[in-house]
Amino acid sequence: xxxxxxxxxxxxxxxxxxxxxxxxDLADYIEGLSDxxxxxxxxxxVALSGGSVIRLMRKLCKVPYNKTVDWSKWYIFWVDExxxxxxxxxxxxxxxxxHLLSKLPIVPSHVxxxxxxxxxxxxxxxxxxxxxxxxxxxxxxxxxxxxxxxFDLILLGLGPDGHVASLFPNHPILExxxxxxxxxTNSPKPPPERITFTLPVINSxxxxxxxxxxxxxxxxxxxAIDDLGPKCLVLPARMVQPGAGKLxxxxxxxxxxxxxxxxxxxxxxxxxDEILYMNEEV
Length: 282
Ligand SMILES: O=C(O)[C@H](O)[C@@H](O)[C@H](O)[C@H](O)COP(=O)(O)O
Description:
This protein is α/β, with parallel strands linked by helices.
């Protein structure tokens, strides 16, 4: 049960006492999206990130979700992936397989991981080609606000620096407007070589969930969610603004501790001062 649900500027922020409460509500929320999408289109296309968001999805592997979700209609993709062997400990595919996919009756041919025998550039081009085929065959929906695929759900984690997927602050790929999938070879978060959805693809999704827990994410969540002037517009997490989709933040109280809307009154004054100060600065 969320402690708080806050709505503003097409953003919904859900705050939970702890990660266990968050993971229960996250499973419930995702099941609702799955049911609606399968009812409407007969499929549910989900793109996963790496990191702790996968473990926070763990309740989907348990009763009732493992019995009530129509897993046969799920199609799995990766928002970003490290360019390593799929058996490597750094692989997001391995992370999802170990913690989710191996525990659910998902159809193996519906799981679209990268070709791990290619270079980063080749893997990005290959992944985009696969996506384009799946949009052509209508497995993946096409956006009507862009020429991008429209995933039913994109799940993002949040880095302490405000990165999402493998879109890091001040990186040129944040400006990529045409490619669906691009690559980096100098990720500040190891390993260095990754492929990643571009912002136009993320922002064409029907639903985007950003899931973050722990105090080390508090500043990034605050900068991404609160109106703090132009300074925070360079944060990749703030650039996640699905044009025709819904954006929901799932935070625990630590990660939400600096978010202006949800702080307790005593801290609110400090935040207001910060906002006033930053506005003077601009
Ligand atoms: O491949 C990756 O590294 C992820 O996609 C990355 O974007 C991750 O989601 C964040 O860094 C948060 O990771 P944590 O939740 O584990 O801190």
